Amino acid sequence: MNRAANSRTLWIILSLTLLTAFAYSAVGDNEFVSFDDDHYIANNPFIADGLTLKNVVWAFKTFYFANWHPLTWLSYLTDVTLFGLNPRGSHLTSLLIHIADVMLLFICLNRMTQRPWQSAIVAALFALHPINVESVAWASERKNVLSTLFWLLTMMAYLKYVQQPRIKWYALTLLTFVLGLMAKPMLVTLPVVLLLLDYWPLQRFDSRSGGVDLVIEKVPFFIIALLSGVVTVFAQRQALISLAVTPLKLRLYSIAHSYAGYIRMMFWPKGLTIFYPYSGDMQLSYTLLLSVCIVGVTVLAFYKRCRMPYLLVGWLWYLVTLVPVLQLLQVSAAPIADRYAYVPLIGVFIALVYGLAALELGRPGKLFLSVCAGCVLLTLCLLTRQQVSYWQNSGTLFKHAVEVTDNNYVANNDYGMYLMREGKVQEAIVQFSKGLEARPDNPHLNFNLWGALVFEGRGAEAQQYFLRARPFWVNAGEASVYKMLSHALMRQRKYDLAYEYLQKSLSLDPKDAVVYDYLGLTLSAQGKFEEALMYFSAGIGIANNPWELYFHKGLILKKMGREEEARESLEKSLTLNPNSQDVRSLLNK
After folding, report:
1. Same domain for 494 and 379
2. Separation of alpha carbons 342 and 145, rounded Å
3. Statement to judge: residues 483 and 390 lie in one domain
4. CA-to-CA distance for 394 and 308, rounded, in angstroms?
5. pLDDT category, 207, cuts 50, 70, 90?
6. What is the sign, positive or negative, of the torsion defined by CA atoms of 289, 291, 292, 296?
7. Same domain, yes or no: 497 and 378
8. Among 338, 364, 394, which residue terminates a domain?
9. Which of 318, 353, 371, 355 is nearest to 189 (CA)?
10. From the CA atom positions of the chain, what is the Rg in Å?
11. Residue 577: which domain range?
12. Which residues of 353-368 are buried (b: 16+ CB within 10 A; e: fewer)?
């Protein structure tokens, strides 16, 4: 019997692994995107050198980018040590962690409930639902899959402690919990989830004590969670969005819309994307209706708790684990995000799957339910493959966001910036203008529209947008403003004036590799190749990832007829950025 059970477990694990790998098979071909990946990895000077003692110390001390998650930084450092700054390595690592999450979820549920098929379907839904693509395909969300790995390891260790109540298993449970918090503070609600698991399926609640002993048992977990919360608020204090930008009333309304929104996205995963702006339908009447529905489901689950305890546990899992990301303390301009549902929807999956399996349907009914489950999983698998394709690069990502949302000023801005880099200035102007229709005072959009109009020679029209962008270029600093102005002048082929501004920028910030690159391009456009090479070489010496500098240097060397040196420079560029088709095609000529 044990041999048959072990064989079935291995078969389920293998099937889950292959299905997940198939659904995400294209993720390794995706690039880093311009939404946080530059800050986390591509342009992070501490990540570029990989695992060194100095960088390990930095990972534990830093609040860089408004986060304290040393284990996440260590995972990026390991990626760079193994694969360099190659997005394929980062994406495949995240996929492997997601697969590990899937396997652990199945194993943990199976051991706790002794119901392998229900556990397998819950794990499959978690593995294949397209709402989880953001957590896996976005390199910046490594913290999400990594912290969930420790979340599930904590549950496994806790199960061992319940089965064998020894101090070593309690200590292991506490250790994995702390490690998870060091990957992402999302685990602050895990002590409550452990109490829910005590109720079902572990059945540890004693009617005489009322569970007080179980709460006392979790006190060290609650204390550590509180400390983690304090550290998180301290780390994110400068990133917090003020009530003047997003009023308290809107945030409170957003709670009901968020709880209902993730359920809608679970059942109807259409239009999933990187950024969701605040919706215009947050009226009091609609918000109250959603609140009544949420309370109604909670009451029903509580009413059914004796016969169907998994309904209550799964639903409360969902309600509790979403609390840290309900944006009452707001650090994101978006009220909801796909990545926030990665752990919470596990609870809904448990309630649905175990609830449906408990229905007395008879053999034909159960066969029909099995066929439906297979069709749902196949559909989700195909939807996930499609969702992964949207993460191919910044262009595909933000183009999709613009297409599936309304008034998405963030997507308009980022898609416009991508179009500018591709030389499609007219299309970029359209995107910046659409973004300003939703947010007329947004400084980033105003500045980018100014730059695009200047490039098109529409300086008089552009001036108004430059003035509206004052908060952006004031905060950016004088050196950055000179650099931005010079870039616009380069596009107008006003190279002498661009050179003058670049020298001013360089005097204020001599370690900006982009300025060296611009100087090289400005000089090479004037035929001053030897001087240009000097600036490219200087930039290579200080850049985090100098693939563009090597590329531009190779272009100039090729123009100068120094073919062997040009090829060497281009090969270095391709090594640093294997996805660059421009470098590859030039090498193949």
Report:
1. no
2. 8
3. no
4. 45
5. low
6. positive
7. no
8. 394
9. 318
10. 27
11. 478-589
12. bbbebeeeeeeeeeee
Q: Is 280 helix (H, G, I), strand (E, B) or coil?
A: coil
Structure tokens at 198: 């005590």
Q: Residue 215 carries which side chain, given as an amino acid letter?
A: V
168 CB neighbour count, 10 Å cutoff: 11
- Six-digit token string for 365: 């009914």
Q: Is residue 365 part of a domain?
A: yes
Residues 389 and 492 in one domain: no
Cα atoms in the 13 Å half-sphere on the side-chain side of 461: 11
Confidence of residue 228 (pLDDT cuts 50, 70, 90): very high
pTM: 0.88
Please report whether residue 259 resides in a domain. Answer: yes
Q: In whole angstroms, what is the distance from residue 360 CA to residue 527 CA?
A: 82
Instruction: Assess whether pLDDT exceeds 70 at residue 201.
Output: yes
- Provide long-range contacts, Cβ within 8 A and 24+ apart, for 394-399: 394/31, 394/33, 394/34, 394/35, 394/418, 395/419, 395/422, 397/33, 397/35, 397/274, 398/274
Tokens read off for 255: 């709670």
| Joined tokens for residue 471 | 């908060």
Buried b (16+ CB within 10 A) or exposed e, 379-399: ebbebbbebbbbbbbbbbbbb
- Give the DSSP H/E element, type plus range, for residue 2: helix 2-23
User: What are the tokens at 63?
Assistant: 């609040």
- Name residues whose C-beta falls within 8 Å of residue 530's C-beta, 6 or more positions apart in sequence: none
| CA 108 from centroid of its chain's CA atoms | 25
Residue 444 lies in a domain: no
In a domain, 442, yes or no: no
**With contact defined as beta carbons under 8 Å apart, do 308 and 235 qualify?**
no
Are 158 and 17 contained in the same domain? yes
- Same domain (yes/no): 247, 365: yes
- The CA distance from 526 to 519, in Å, is 11
CATH number of residue 521's parent domain: 1.25.40.10
Last residue of a domain, one of 360, 394, 428: 394
Q: How far apart, in whole angstroms, are the C-alpha atoms of residue 105 and residue 216?
A: 26
Give the Cβ contact number of residue 242 at 10 Å: 8
Note whether 358 and 485 are same-domain residues.
Answer: no
| pLDDT tens per residue across span 428-455 | 999 999 999 999 999 889 989 988 888 7
Q: Is the pLDDT of residue 526 over 90?
A: yes
Is residue 281 packed enough to be buried (19+ CB in 10 Å), middle (13-18) or exposed (0-12)?
Answer: exposed
Q: Is 69 exposed, middle or buried (0-12, 13-18, 19+ CB in 10 A)?
A: buried
258 CB-near residues (< 8 Å, 6+ apart): 322, 326, 327, 335, 336
Element spanning 142, H or E = helix 142-163
Confidence of residue 481 (pLDDT cuts 50, 70, 90): confident
Phi-psi region of 511 (alpha: psi -120 to 50; beta: other; left: phi over 0): alpha
Instruction: Give the chain's domain count.
Output: 2
148 and 261 in a common domain: yes
